[in-house]
Fold this sequence. Notes:
Largest interface: A-B, 26 and 19 residues
Structural class of chain A: alpha+beta
Strand order of the largest sheet of chain A: 1-2-3-5-4
Helix content of chain A: 25-40%
Strand order of the largest sheet of chain B: 1-5-4-3-2
Helix content of chain B: 25-40%
CATH architecture of chain B: 3-Layer(aba) Sandwich
Radius of gyration of chain A: 15 Å
Radius of gyration of chain B: 12 Å
Number of strands of chain A: 5
CATH topology of chain A: Heat Shock Protein 90
CATH class of chain A: Alpha Beta
Order of helices and strands of chain A: EHHEEHHHEE
Largest sheet of chain B: 5 strands, mixed
Strand content of chain A: 25-35%
Number of helices of chain B: 5
Bound molecules: adenosine-5'-diphosphate, magnesium ion
Number of domains of chain A: 1
CATH topology of chain B: Udp-n-acetylmuramoylalanyl-d-glutamate--2,6- Diaminopimelate Ligase, Chain: A, domain 1
Oligomer: heterodimer
Amino acid sequence: MDNSTPLTYSFTVHGDDFSSAGEASVQVKKILRSIGFDADTIRRVSIAMYEAEINMVIHAGGGVADLYVYPDRIVIVLTDKGPGIADIGLAMSEGYSTAPDNIRSLGFGAGMGLPNIKRYSDNLDIDSKLGEGTKLTITVIPQR
Amino acid sequence: MKISEIATLLDAKVLCCEESISHEVHSACGSDMMSDVLAYVKNQAVLLTGLVNPQVIRTAMMMDMRCIVFVRDKNPSDEMIELAKEADIVLLSSPKRMFDACGILYSGGLCPNEV
Ligand SMILES: Nc1ncnc2c1ncn2[C@@H]1O[C@H](COP(=O)(O)OP(=O)(O)O)[C@@H](O)[C@H]1O
Ligand SMILES: [Mg+2]
């Protein structure tokens, strides 16, 4: 495996079903485990991706999640065609949420998702256009 | 403490992965907010919750937890039980309320943090 050709995997995240949200993250966790990454790295990737996947379902009607495994880093790109994020700085602040109450009663929508993704990853890039969609690029660097 | 001791202390039914109840766990957390669990929990092996949906199981999977206790006799769906089996997570259902269940496990020796 060299740096120019990562192992790649692609997942469809269905937007119509909250109860299946997170299936792609479960798959990614299995893949990373079979490759042999350490538990802490796998956990950081899993949590960050899971929060992002939940966001895609509750805020953007689903999308696509791509996993790229390089020898020295794991990159997850989540692309949706949802409403976009008007103020990324505001969205990044702990506790800010536009999620409806029914989502809160399901255990999410506390406004902790994006801050969590930032906390567990080594780099988070958010590219969003109102009315067009959002692309999150999450990078995790395994520690040795 | 073994998971089987948690089940005894909480008068809980074992709903799946009975073969793993002799597993030792040291710490637990109680929450209905999965985002909070994902944000603040570190290495806790047991989750106590009153929330019942598949995201509870997936949250525990992401956190590498070993056991979920559903308080107030809440019962997970078959779909949730299948998910838990996949990840070898023991599901317990206890008649206790959240506050009581946490108190019992705390005084029984479970820590809020992994040692
Ligand atoms: N993929 C997305 N598309 C559109 N808006 C989003 C997306 N992800 C996050 N947001 C916006 O950013 C806010 C904060 O996200 P987050 O921190 O995950 O909190 P929560 O999901 O609990 O609301 C959301 O409430 C929503 O307004
Ligand atoms: Mg969120």
